[in-house]
Amino acid sequence: MAAPSTAQDASRASAKAALAAPKVPLAIGVSWYPEQWPEARWATDLAMMRQAGFNTVRLAEFAWSRMEPSDGRFDFAWLDRAIAAAHAAGMQVVLGTPTAAPPAWMSQAYPEILRVDENGTRAEHGGRRHFSFASARYRTFATRIAAEMAKHYGRDPRILGWQIDNEVGPPSFDPEAQALWHAFLAKRYGTIETLNRRWTTHYWSQHYDNFAQVPLRATGQHNPGLLLDFKHFVTATWVDYVQAQAGAIRAVADPRQWVTTNTMFWNAGFDHFAMHRDLDLASWDNYIPDGRPDWLANAANHDLVRGYKQRNFWLMETQPGRVDWVPVNRALDRGQTRELAWQAIGHGADAVLYWQWRSALNGQEQYHGAMLGADGTPYPIFDESAQVAHDAAAAGPALAGTEPVGKIAMLFSYDSRWAIDLQRHHRDFDPIKQFTAWYRPLRSLSQAVHIVPIDADLKRYPLVVAPSLHVVTQAEADRLAGYVRAGGHLVLGPRSGMKDDANALWPQRQPGPLADLLGAQVEQYYALDAAAPLSGALGNGETSIWAETIAPRAKDVEILERYGPSNGWLDGKPAAVTRRVGKGRITYVGVWPDEAMLRGFARRLLEEAKVAPVIPDAPAALEVMERAGAGKRMLILINHGDAPLSPALPAGAKPVTGDLRDGSLPAHGVAVVALPAD
């Protein structure tokens, strides 16, 4: 083989230097689909993106039929030109593997790759996500296109990172999926006797002689262990699917090109902590379908996504104004698209990408919000998004190297969410609404909450709140007990410690393996159709959905709250208790308190933990987010209200960019402020 030329050496050195160069601190941009438009238009689009201040484009995640027009024939020439044009316009590029939308030649030649729903109906071509996640043949095609893309772009300095697929989620119930299900159960339980024992299959004569007898079902009158393990199976299958593509890319790509996948709002399809464990960063798609943001609930989802990797994330998609897939596709109010972007950044996003650049002339999402209309001229939202980009460019250097401060932690468990949803026992016991009900006062009063998995390192947090840790294993309980004994305060909400990871009831009363630590147990639980009064050290209030009576067993258990006259079963009984253990404390609250009572309880917990907000007594409409790191402390302030506010900034605070003028923040205004470093 001939020695490489001097020009080749120079080219490689240049590429290596470009990969090593720091990227922009805040990536602001759009999903761009050059394959949908004449190539003569590309330069105009990219010039307009640059005019808007965008610095990033996401490409190719739906372009499989363009990249592989027939089986094994690849065409990347058009994508080469698109990437070159984007780079020339000053854009960094994120590439998506196109596996959410397989091409028609594949669906026609290999119909066995198509997804089958729970009723046995096989999907047709023409939508997206119509493949079976269990299909070995489809996996071969998917990893092949990922590998071919990586061979072509894995060492390209213009490529920042990779998004695997797009919003994975729908499972399949085809024969291959059934075979994988049975193999999954065999690996999980080892023997059919163990499965029978863990699922209590002698109930209703469900006893199985072998794994092949176990039906693959997601819903219906099936054993709770089967239904929860279905979620475990879906998680394992999707993780394997994503990792197969990630492995194909990493085999040849520069390790500085990160790999992620984008997830969705409070998605329950799989365990997102497990999905992101072996990915380089977390990313998600933030949409407000009805156009009326619940800012605290949206903040909670940002904090959850940050918790997947417990570090900063990317907002891979967000709406420019509106969506097109709900009954009333109301646009966000003027200013709220900007608020949405800065809220994401405040909670740890290092990127905000809009979906999408231009409305397609046809296709299922032609009415979706976009920067440009089908005629190629800007929609009104263009200027607001451009303001986000220009402000982010100004604030980027100050925010570089920072991440959200977290003074307390909340535990989120997918197993617990799934198990409660499978058996709510009260139609209104929505585990997400219950979680956010606790999050609201804790976040607004402390102005800094991390949401983490149960296996996270908790020692840095003086207070850890688990609103409904319904499913807990013995090993997890032991770790939590260690946290308490070492000096932490663990607060458990109702329905905690009821189930194990096979969705079986613990033989000891709630909170199951934590009952000895608590020195008390739940005597009985009650679904309510009328409010029950509460009074005690946590204040006066009521619970209207759920009530548990708690029986102290240890002498040092302190009763915090009791029920007033109600249904006879509750009257005068303890509703919340606490106990000091070692250097710390465990508290159990057996009710879903009303909003005012929860706020009072949150205030007490934060005072005991010596956690104070950056801006005390901040108005409800003011969202305060602190990011710190690299010797810097930054505040991002958003006025979500319709009237000006005058936030009481800490001494020495200096505005960096935004709308703060003479101490006043206008309605829907945003400000980035530097604080003196500690």
From TrEMBL:
Domain named Beta-galactosidase trimerisation: residues: 407-611
GO MF annotation terms: beta-galactosidase activity; metal ion binding
Gene3D superfamilies xrefs: 3.40.50.880, Glycosidases
Main EC class the enzyme belongs to: hydrolase
Active site: 167, 317
Residues annotated as domain Glycoside hydrolase family 42 N-terminal: 32-391
Keyword Metal-binding applies: yes
GO biological process: carbohydrate metabolic process
Keyword annotations of the record: Glycosidase, Hydrolase, Metal-binding, Zinc
Family: Belongs to the glycosyl hydrolase 42 family.
Name under which the protein is recorded: Beta-galactosidase
High-level lineage: Bacteria, Pseudomonadati, Pseudomonadota, Alphaproteobacteria, Sphingomonadales
